Records
---
Amino acid sequence: MEVILFVVEGAKEEPKIIDSLKNIFLNDKVIVKILYGTSIYHLYSKIREDEDIEILEILREMSTENREILKNLKRSQISSIFLFFDQDSHNSNASETKLETLINFFDNEYGNGKLYISYPMVEALRDIEHLDENSDISLCEWNIDENRSYKKYVADRLIRCKLTRLSIYKDYNDKTWNCINKYNWRKGNFLIRGESLLPSYEILSTFSQNVIFKKQLDKIKQNKNIITLSGFSFFVAFYFKKEKIEEMIQNFY
């Protein structure tokens, strides 16, 4: 059976999102969740210090919980590794250059892992006005100087829009994920191509993390704004093949 390793930055939100992803999309896979708990720069530097060391060894060193989770696993038993981190702490131009290095380094799920960035942070997944495939994207820009207030902004928005249930990830169903993913894919299309329409699979498949990063950096340089995007929705777009994604694009559950 296929084993997928997810490495996440935070202990509160991300593990619950991954549980929901498994329930809806990955229920035939073995999912292993690991909390890294610090900057991905730290992980990168540890690998670069000793390029012969396996990423699993670094992850085991992070905590006794990680050692317990990974104690019987070898790298050869894991089919792919995906990492989910926030852009939030990388909002100066200098650190954005470093972030590009990380995206280019962690670009292979069969090696040290494939990195997905949420802009500005994980709460972008539920930053939405209403669960409709045509939800308005006019409020999708965010100024990175205001990142400290982003969590509160999303929480207040959910209350105002009567969508507080989106904070309960275990209750997400096909319709919830379909709306959230389509919304993020439309925002990606707006960022990259200046169009608010839902992109076709052929277009969506070109929205790599590197392409997204470069377009976000252009916006940061212009006015310190980004387009709020969830790394989890772009993981779904990458992980599943054309038939599955086209079904999601065409259907509204």
---
Amino acid sequence: MQTLEQIRRFRSILLLIFLPLTTFAQKAGLKDYYKNYLPVGVAVAPGNLNGNEASLIIREFNSITPENAMKMGPIHPEENRYYWKDADSIVNFAQRHGLKVRGHNLCWHEQTPAWLFTDSQGDTVSKEVLLQRLKDHIYTVVKRYKGKIYAWDVVNEAIDDDSTKFLRNSAWYKICGDEFIAKAFEYAHEADPQALLFYNDYNTERPEKRERVYRLLKQLVDQGVPITGVGLQAHWSIFEPSAGELQTAIEKYASLGLKVQITELDVSVYPWEKNMRSRRPGEQDSFTPELEERQREQYKMIFDMFRKYKNIITGVTFWNISDRHTWLDNYPVPGRKNYPLLFDQNLRRKQAYQDVITF
């Protein structure tokens, strides 16, 4: 029969063995579970960088992306004026806490400032003028954060939504043709030769768009454009993509010698829609057990695939921190709540979190 002293000693040994594991479980985040696979990041705004959201960021992630602060409109609102405060606060936060930063983005057809495409008379500028403005912008922004931002989404969403067309008929394309795409990458590489440079787009797993994205990427590679990889935005849902669609896309893009990053991940509980519309009669707006189960299954499949292709996929970034606030709230249906992330409205880990870290 054990003495009281032996029992105490045995309990002390058990505590020494299991306490570090318990402490790790309390402090470990997604970045720790995936340390042998890939960096795990999140899109942030300056308002997320304090309080309990900041604590969650530091615990769970080792990379951050400015959700809006580095887009051309917010950061370069007038030709001769830059607004650095928000972008600087995000980069400084990352520096203080040892986080990597992905820059987002340098050239896009949306959130562009009004002055960009016209001259002082209001007339459309020439291709030469627009390319010079693009060069000046990229040089200024990329050089400011050289050595602090390891990767950039250089060109965003240049493929048309219409499956019968190739490139989007944006102001960039109307003025420059497709030349602006290659030039943007060249300017970014000149500004920071060490930065990883990505083309970034959505619905990149849908077969019809996958082929057009591949066509663009192949053109860039064949032209010797300094492109590192492709960013799959991954605005997915419980309905898509399938495992087969995701696998085919990853392998097809990788066949060009490009790396893949998952740049804007969320898993909506509603089917993907592009255009705004009104709420339909009887349309649900709650995170039901059935929706949660389907979301868990989708997240598990997705991260199983990420681990399988860890030599190709070099990073994954969630688009927003928690269900408390996401860009999918009120989009595309005003007044409708979405629940697309791994943390709930109280910043607690949802059941899907366990599916992501259990492997």
---
Amino acid sequence: MEFFDEVVMKVFKRIGLVLAAAFLLAGCKQEEDEFNGLVISSNYNFVEAEEEVNFCATFYKDGSADSSEVVNFCVESDSTGGAVLKSKSAKSGEYVSLKMGTVAGGFVKVVAECNGSSAYKIFGINSSEEILASDKAIGFAGLGVDMSKMVNTVTVSTGSELKQYAKKGGHVIFVQGNIDMSEGMLPAEGSVMDGSSATDKMNSFVASKSEYSSYGEWIKNTTNVSASKKTDTPSISNAYKSTIQITVANNTAIIGLDGACVRGGSFSIRNVSNVVIRNISLKDAVDPFPHHESGDGWNAQHDLVSIDNGKNIWIDHCTFEDTLTLGKAANGEKLQVYDGLCDMKSTTTNVTVSNCVFKNHDKTMLIGSSDNDGANDPAARKISLFYNYWLNCGQRCPFVRNSLCHVLNNVYDSDSNRIYNSQTSINARAGSVVCAENNSFGSVASPNEAGGSISYSPNSNFNPESYYLYVTLESKAVKSWVKANAGARQ
């Protein structure tokens, strides 16, 4: 919020200079008109399901509250499943009670009218502690995610089962326990990914797919660019990817039971619609056989979650995390075995990433793979990022091209475990319009506005309220609320 306050003060200072100049030119004092109209106030924006919330609408005339006027109320929209106003009218300044419905994550918009003036207030229901298949998607994903199309239910506890049902479509898949998509090829968490801690299964895999007998030998020979002509090994890289990739079909929800973890997997959401991934700890989407890029060392080629031409996608209450320390290539360059945590490209749209934790990663979230991905059309992709906790992330939180992106109630921070230098948080680039509201920036880089636009409240270019309802958290509570609620349930 400190960054937000700084921006606001800069704007006010500029306005002040302009007004001062106007006063000098006019040679007289100018006074502002006194306020006339309605103001709605309440102590709370979020409440529990079926709880009553009190609010009042006050009509002001010539800058003073007028208690003689009668204010009329109505519920204009409701996604909570039956919100009820206890009174349809009240005197100006009197409190009115609204009983919320039962749907966690739902919103109610109440409109007040008085003497030709109108105002509105939006109230939300807190997310329930239990993650249910019936929960409603929020933000842009709420415009199209339809759980009724996922007609079958199954519980899986192995990588083969997860891959089998994810590609079928039409399923709600409950994930139980810990699943290792690498089938034992990844070393233990906290190990260095350089061959020194390679498992027997990784060594056997390398021996079966290459001329080398172990992963350490593969690194020693293949990544020594000065001594080897072969600086890329797509065959072994693709073979590993086919082992760990989870291809997700249309109309699929993947929901972790409490404590569920998928390690070493890469979720591919490509050319599909209506996909939900919730309540899973997602770790180490490692590419052990990265591609060499001149001037930039060795770089991984797949993401933890990759959304390519996807529509109506909801990623919620997941924890994205790296646990392996990066090693060095034989030629001394970096050996980057991680790519993005959640990347989006092509005609992907109507996506919400909410209540998630992103931690200990460098290039975290890329939206738009190049300046030409989206043809400089900010409406090419519509993305909502709500209530996420970005901890120890170096950059791309997100990096946005050619998209409308609403970044609301996010927390950016670092701690003593930080590995990557904080470079940028919200990076708005070619063709993007980002509405960033009520975010908390701790000891990290503040937003980088180069190449795009960031507005700190809805504006004429992009007003999120024209698409969906949402509520900002109380400013003082943003950091504590998000830290307490984001991530997979353990």
